[in-house]
Automatic annotation (TrEMBL):
The gene is lptB_6. InterPro entries: AAA+_ATPase, ABC_AA/LPS_Transport, ABC_transporter-like_ATP-bd, ABC_transporter-like_CS, BCA_ABC_TP_C, P-loop_NTPase. CDD domains: ABC_Mj1267_LivG_branched. The lineage of its organism: Bacteria, Pseudomonadati, Pseudomonadota, Alphaproteobacteria, Rhodobacterales. Residues 2-250 form the ABC transporter domain. It comes from Pseudoprimorskyibacter insulae. This is Lipopolysaccharide export system ATP-binding protein LptB. It comes from the Bacteria.
Length: 258
């Protein structure tokens, strides 16, 4: 679904992404791991249109999407979440979800004056869908709670729910487990698996929790120094000496040999 070819993103003399080439298969949950400064988030930002590449290409379903802005990629079904959730804190969870779809009739002044019936129909459909999403994510009890009052893990679930309000094809998750307690992390993991298996979502996720990665992801791609270092199953990655030295540390290697 996504193909990245010899991608570079430089900041002055610093090469955050330095010739990365990789593929994300349709229907997969692909993990992206690596040490801090490996270029993972910068790679996400370039793919998702937040940053232009210095050079290289990005393709989605064979189409060159290099450098397209986020709103165009959104309409193509490419979405991303952030390490720090971006919610509308003063709005309820339900309202946060209802805000997501673009092109709503109520966005134009003409329709606000003369198309109130159509607006009401759209809002009723959006409300129904939002409630279905909240139920799917097991947070329907929070539908009227202000999003700013949610815990970190609940905000991550809400952000995942926002991707369900449109026809997402691929979702890039940036450290969805960061700062989330184990119970909520399991809930998030269950939701990702269900979206993948029941609704055909493709995911690529940056994550440092290797147990979480191991539960969800196949394959796992390791980045180091701005490029792909290795790719394979979690077992293959954990047994790879280059990965152990670059990312996991010699302690795991010694533990495995003991």
């Amino acid at each position: 679904m996504i193909r990245v070819e010899n991608l570079h993103r430089h900041f002055g003399g610093f090469r955050a992404v330095d010739g990365a080439s990789l593929e994300i298969a349709k229907g997969s949950i692909t993990g992206l791991v690596g040490p801090n400064g490996a270029g993972k988030t910068t790679l996400f930002n370039v793919i998702a249109g937040a940053l232009p590449p210095t050079s290289g290409k990005v393709f989605m379903d064979g189409e060159d999407i290099t450098g397209l802005p986020p709103h165009e990629l959104f309409h193509k079904g490419l979405l991303r979440t952030f390490q720090i959730a971006h919610e509308f804190s003063s709005m309820s969870c339900r309202e946060n979800l209802m805000m997501v779809p673009g092109g709503q009739s109520g966005e134009t002044l003409w329709n606000a004056w003369f198309g109130r019936g159509r607006i009401a129909q759209e809002e009723a459909a959006l409300l129904k869908k939002a409630d279905e999403v909240l139920d799917f994510l097991t947070i329907s009890h929070l539908k009227d709670e202000k999003a700013g009052n949610l815990s970190g893990g609940q905000k991550k679930l809400l952000e995942l729910g926002r991707t369900m309000m449109v026809d997402a094809k691929i979702v890039f998750l940036d450290e969805v487990g960061a700062g989330v307690n184990r119970t909520l992390l399991n809930t998030i993991g269950d939701a990702i698996l269900r979206l993948n298996q029941e609704r055909g979502y493709t995911f690529c996720m940056i994550e440092h929790d290797m147990d979480f990665i191991g539960r969800l992801c196949d394959p796992v791609i390791v980045m180091a120094e701005g490029k792909k270092l290795a790719e394979g199953t979690i077992a293959h990655i954990k047994a790879n000496n280059e990965v152990i030295e670059a990312y996991l540390g010699t302690g795991l290697k010694n533990k495995g040999a003991a």
